[in-house]
Specification:
The structure holds two protein chains of two kinds. Chain A has three domains: 17-227, NADH-ubiquinone oxidoreductase 51kDa subunit (Rossmann fold); 238-321, Ubiquitin-like (UB roll) (Roll), CATH 3.10.20.600; 326-414, de novo design (two linked rop proteins) (Up-down Bundle). In chain A, 42% of the residues lie in helices and 12% in strands. Chain A is built from 18 helices and nine strands. Chain A has helices at 17-22, 27-35, 38-48, 60-65, 90-97, 100-113, 127-142, 173-180, 209-213, 215-221, 223-227, 261-266, 302-307, 326-340, 346-363, 370-381, 389-403, 405-414, and strands spanning 76-81, 117-122, 158-163, 204-208, 238-245, 252-256, 278-282, 291-292, 316-321. In chain A, a hairpin with a 6-residue loop joins strand 5 (238-245) and strand 6. Chain B is of the alpha+beta class. Chain B folds into two domains: 4-61; 75-154, Glutaredoxin (3-Layer(aba) Sandwich). Chain B is 47% helix and 12% strand. Chain B has helices at residues 4-16, 24-35, 40-50, 54-61, 83-87, 90-101, 143-154, and strands at 75-80, 114-119, 131-133, 136-138. In chain B, helix 1 (4-16) packs antiparallel against helix 2 and helix 3 (40-50) crosses helix 4 (54-61). The longest helix of chain B has 13 residues, at 4-16. Chain B is elongated, with a radius of gyration of 17 Å. The chains are: A alpha/beta, B alpha+beta. Chains A and B meet through helix 5, strand 5, strand 9 and helix 14 of A and helix 2 and helix 5 of B.
Chain lengths: 420, 155
């Protein structure tokens, strides 16, 4: 199986600069700088069908195409490596094994977009990944692959690292831009979108680390090759799936887009922990809806998971076994979101703690039938929030009410958690 | 007052930034490492270095999870309580640490060594439950392993 992302990985240490180059690394950058126009690089990424791997799944080439080319002043590229979506650790694994694909991908994206200066925004706690990136950037500079007049061309690109200090909302692209500018990281009003008015009010593209790390292989091997890696007709490429929870092996693996949920759990994860029965999972980080045992045949691609009522999201799969209380699990996730709300807008700041209290009283056996209606109303009210945090937070709750309403009702009728 | 050497380092960091305040998080982190937590004096120093008011610095300082605006112990223990760690019994780990250190979340052990704080997803979901002590991450932490880690970190 072809792995554009993990093919350079060594089992127990990061790949070295020499090894990466010997295996064809930075040849895509050379190919682009010597034989492709920026527009051709962008078109290749557009044709490849690459979609954002951070969670929203927006087509990457299209995102790039929104950047106006005729505005005066600098344009910016930011790699979003503020990986804080509960259940998601793929970017950390990627960068702890190989920082070079991201550096090369950022150089290619910067070339396509006409960016002189790019940033990597990396979360607190990812110091190992940050150290790898720092080293990789220095090595690329040394080899003339970054900095002034790269590979003898007239193209110059620099990459800077920004190490954050924790807070989930910094991963929201406009909050991230504020954070990078040294402002309080509340999200900004959209529109204007960052592509037009982002970092220091200049045109800005924010892409996830996994997304950008795919670009070298796409440019090297072509759009058709990348598209052909997927197992679905409409899909493209591979995806990093990082699995946690009640499976035998909690692994981060690169698999073709379109691999089924069941294949991931039965294959690399080695089935369920202690041979327990699968009850449900969150397929793409905490802001996606539950999938059930009836969904094990769902192909993990954007459209197919959406059709099943959830989202592919970040690829962070959290597995729950039979006997786990999903009211308690949802309460845990809502507690996270309530704490991480930046407090900027009322529906999120006030709504999330209210939803948390309703779920807590249901879990504690003090819920009433009308609480179900209250929860449903709040799914609607919280969609009126300023950014995507609160609607994302409502996803597991909506999944709970769609697939496990009987379990919620049982708490209310028995006046206790049936699993305790 | 901060040592001249630290001041020079921080001034260099600010000068290298595209706009001064872009360096705010780095400056706060360095000052926190010097003082142990981000004291009022540190906020004032940061404001001077960044060309901001103390209020503007506080607006940032109070936002970030890993900037401490209150005194903490020599090392801060962050215990992840997000969903993957929840499936791996992080609640029991937290209860164990509370009893062991004799503190509630947010509290500092009587010897001033450790402050215990829950934190959001550390990105170690494959090695849950996870915690960090003084910035060093630890995975698959059982109560027994937690005891051994604290023993080692105490030195």
């Amino acid at each position: 199986m072809e792995m554009p992302l993990f093919r350079h990985n060594r089992p127990d240490r990061p790949v070295t600069f020499e090894e990466y180059r010997a295996e064809g690394g930075f040849r895509a950058l050379q190919k682009a700088l010597t034989g492709m126009s920026p527009a051709e690089v962008q078109q290749t990424v557009m044709d490849s069908g690459l979609r954002g791997r951070g969670g929203a799944g927006f087509p990457t080439g299209r995102k790039w195409s929104f950047v106006p080319r005729d505005l005066p002043g600098p344009r910016w590229l930011i790699c979003n490596c503020d990986e804080m979506e509960p259940g998601t650790y793929k970017d950390r694994v990627l960068l702890e094994h190989n920082p070079y694909s991201l550096v090369e991908g950022m150089a290619l994206a910067s070339y396509a977009l006409g960016v002189r200066h790019a940033f990597i925004f990396i979360r607190k706690g990812y110091e190992k990944a940050a150290a790898n990136l720092k080293r990789a950037i220095a090595e690329a500079h040394e080899a003339g692959l970054l900095g002034e007049r790269m590979l003898g061309s007239d193209v110059s690109i620099d990459i800077d690292l920004h190490l954050s200090a924790g807070r989930y909302i910094c991963g929201e692209e406009t909050a991230l831009i504020n954070a990078l500018e040294g402002k309080r990281p509340n999200p900004r009003q959209k529109p204007p979108f960052p592509a037009v008015k982002g970092l220091w009010n200049g045109p800005t593209v924010v892409n996830n680390a996994e997304t950008l790390a795919n670009v070298p292989a796409i440019v090297a091997n072509g759009a058709a090759w990348y598209k052909g890696l997927a197992l679905t007709a409409e899909g493209a490429g591979t995806k990093l799936f990082c699995v946690s929870g009640a499976v035998a092996n909690r692994v981060c693996v690169e698999l073709p887009i379109g691999t089924t949920l069941g294949e991931i759990i039965e294959g690399p994860c080695g089935g369920m922990r202690e041979a327990k029965k699968f009850k449900a999972c969150i397929p793409g980080g905490a802001s996606t809806q539950f999938l059930t045992a009836g969904h094990l045949n769902v192909q993990m691609d954007y459209e197919t998971v959406a059709k099943a009522g959830s989202r592919l999201g970040s690829g962070g799969i959290i597995v729950f076994q039979e006997g786990t209380c999903l009211v308690a699990a949802t309460l845990n996730m809502i507690t996270f979101f309530a704490r991480e709300s930046c407090g900027w807008c009322t529906p999120c700041r006030e709504g999330l703690p209210f939803v948390r209290e309703i779920l807590r009283r249901i879990e504690d056996g003090a819920g009433e039938e009308r609480d179900l209606e209250l929860l449903r109303e709040h799914i609607k009210y919280l969609s009126y929030s300023f950014c995507a945090l609160a609607p994302g937070a409502m996803a597991p709750l909506e999944g709970l009410l769609t697939h496990f309403e009987d379990e919620v009702r049982e708490h209310i009728l028995k006046r206790r958690c049936p699993f305790r | 007052m901060i040592p001249d050497e630290l001041r020079k380092t921080l001034e260099g960091r600010v000068a290298a930034a595209i706009t001064a305040r872009e360096a705010a998080v780095d400056v706060m982190k360095e000052l926190q490492a010097h003082y142990g937590w981000l004291t009022d004096e540190a906020v004032g120093e940061a404001a001077g270095l960044l060309g901001l008011s103390a209020l503007q610095v506080d607006e940032l300082a109070t936002f970030y999870e890993m900037i401490y605006r209150r005194p903490v112990g020599r090392k801060v223990i962050h215990v992840c309580d997000s969903i993957s760690c929840w499936t791996a019994c992080c609640e029991e780990l937290m209860a164990h640490l509370k009893a062991k250190l004799g503190v509630e979340p947010g509290g500092t052990s009587a010897d001033g060594m450790f402050t215990l704080i829950p934190c959001c997803c550390m990105g170690m979901c494959g090695d849950s439950p996870a915690m960090s002590v003084g910035g060093t991450p630890y995975g698959n932490v059982t109560p027994e392993l937690a005891d051994a880690i604290l023993e080692r970190e105490r030195r």
